[in-house]
Design goal:
Blueprint lengths: L1 H7 L10 E3 L18 E8 H4 L6 E7 L22 E2 L2 E7 L2 E4 L22 H26 L5 H5 L15 E2 L3 E2 L11 E7 L2 E7 L7 E6 L11 E7 L4 E7 L12
Antiparallel strand pairs: 1-2, 2-3, 4-5, 5-6, 5-13, 7-11, 8-10, 9-10, 11-12, 12-13
Amino acid sequence: MLREVERRWPDYTEVPYGLYPFPDPETVFVPEHAELIEHLQPFFSIDLSVVNPEWSGYLTMLGPMEPSEHHFVGQATEDTWWHSPLVHTNWIGFKVEQGQYRLMGDPRYFFLHPDNQYLADPYVEARANLLEMYADQKTAYEAAKKLYRNSGRLFFPSALVDGVPLYDVEQMTFVEQIGGVADYSKFPVSSLSLGYAERQENGVTAGYPCSPAGHPFHHVASVPAHHYQSWGADLIMMFYEPVAQLVLFTFYWEPCEDEGYTGD
């Protein structure tokens, strides 16, 4: 009985088998895209065989340091040519090459990319707000990483930065879900330029983004951004398409009634 409870409701405040928090950032991206570590923080690596025994290798869960409050990932460059079918607002796709990620689009997708220094602010104080957000995200991430190295536990990063006594800091889960299906209701479908499929599975409307070649992406893992950094999407969902070895991230945002932002 106890094993069945643990299977259905695993305690993810403990590092689960096959998950490796805070991987070496230098191993995440192909050399040509090493600069992306300035925009994306590696939360954990996960052994794909844990999700599907027929798969092999590792994928890395990433957390974007943008956007600033009341905006979405990639929104600041919507009016540029830097978006692509796999890299656009609320979606970021990569090709896996020998265990490393190659962005399936232009790195200038991230507004603070150095080559965007002359882009006008797409909204009031966009650049200043993003610079401040990046600094906060990095500080919180490093605080959580340092304490994890010392304790093996993951604690609420923002509270660590604020100097809250450790006995009052909430312990976070390393991951919210491994494998299974992704809840289609949390897809930002209005910004999805790919195809997608949905079907009922165990009472959940499961969502499967489809690659440009028509192959479905399968859910690998999900986690809230604030478990590893100061702020971000309420849920980051990572998908894998094994035929072309593509990885796709999307970002779910809880509705913000006062501003009318619904995350789609």
